[in-house]
């Protein structure tokens, strides 16, 4: 697998000089047994004090503190990663979890907590009714079920790039029949949670080895997908936007319960509501 050179630049422009509040940056990739981080650089303009920490999910968080006034903010990260995930992964699922339904151990269930519970209100169970259509029989093969749900989401929802902030709820995405990669990831995560699976949302970068891949087409895009916890195999990556399973094309940066917890750059400024006049994001992923 290749060495990848990734750059990520976020620029804000303001109509008048403003005071910047603390900014929370989630830009450093998560190192796993399938990804090695060889180098990472972070540059901020204006200059800032940066403190690093890990959140409850083990993500690397940089908190940037600014002083003075500015009419622009630029956050730029550059990294080289060694992506060694296999193209055709084999998952060593524990015997007790090879068929659904299965029961997580008491320890796993406690640790998964909210990751295994739906996060959106569905009073009449519309989503759970839809997901039940993929469970042809009980018991059924666990991995095949998860693949079927991922493929079902892909078949139902058309990918559409959406630059505006925010994420659609899963029922909204189902009703509209289209969504961005983050909308599709939220729908899949919520779908498998209704069946009792532990799932987390992942944000990061997509390496476009094939022009057939969606969700990170062109400058200005990161990518979102889902990891599902299956005993024995651990966290298995599902990218329903591209109908793929495994991490061969994925560079994870942050993983969390809710999509709002994995935004690359969040912060505030003191000024008038209309002072933010422009925001631009540029992402490039290529072989080093």
TrEMBL record:
InterPro entries: Bac_transglu_N, Papain-like_cys_pep_sf, Transglutaminase-like. Residues 173-242 form the Transglutaminase-like domain. Pfam families: Bact_transglu_N (PF08379), Transglut_core (PF01841). Coiled coil: none annotated. PANTHER family: BLR5614 PROTEIN-RELATED, SLL1233 PROTEIN. This is Transglutaminase family protein. It comes from Rhabdonatronobacter sediminivivens.
């Amino acid at each position: 697998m290749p060495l990848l050179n990734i750059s990520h630049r976020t620029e804000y422009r303001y109509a008048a000089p403003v005071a910047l509040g603390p900014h929370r940056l989630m830009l450093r990739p998560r190192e796993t047994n399938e990804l090695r981080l060889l180098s990472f650089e972070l540059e901020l303009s204006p200059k800032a004090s940066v403190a690093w920490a890990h959140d409850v999910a083990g993500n690397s968080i940089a908190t940037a503190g600014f002083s003075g006034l500015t009419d622009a903010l630029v956050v730029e990260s550059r990294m080289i990663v060694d992506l060694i995930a296999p193209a055709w992964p084999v998952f060593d699922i524990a015997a007790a979890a090879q068929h659904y339904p299965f029961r997580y151990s008491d320890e796993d269930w406690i640790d998964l907590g909210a990751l295994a519970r739906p996060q959106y209100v569905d009073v009449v169970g519309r989503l759970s009714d839809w997901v039940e259509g993929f469970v042809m029989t009980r018991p059924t093969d666990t991995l095949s079920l998860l693949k079927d749900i991922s493929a079902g989401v892909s078949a139902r929802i058309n990918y559409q790039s959406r630059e505006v902030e925010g994420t659609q709820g899963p029922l909204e995405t189902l009703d509209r029949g289209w969504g961005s990669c983050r909308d599709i990831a939220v729908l899949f995560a919520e779908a498998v949670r209704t069946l009792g699976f532990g799932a987390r949302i992942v944000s990061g970068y997509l390496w476009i080895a094939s022009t057939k891949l969606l969700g990170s087409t062109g400058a200005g895009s990161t990518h979102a997908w889902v990891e599902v916890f299956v005993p024995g195999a651990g966290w298995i990556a599902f990218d329903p936007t591209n109908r793929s399973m495994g991490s061969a094309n994925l560079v994870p940066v942050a993983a969390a319960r809710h999509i709002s917890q994995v935004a690359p750059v969040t912060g505030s400024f003191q000024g008038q509501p209309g002072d933010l006049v422009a925001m631009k994001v540029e992402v490039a992923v290529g072989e080093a």
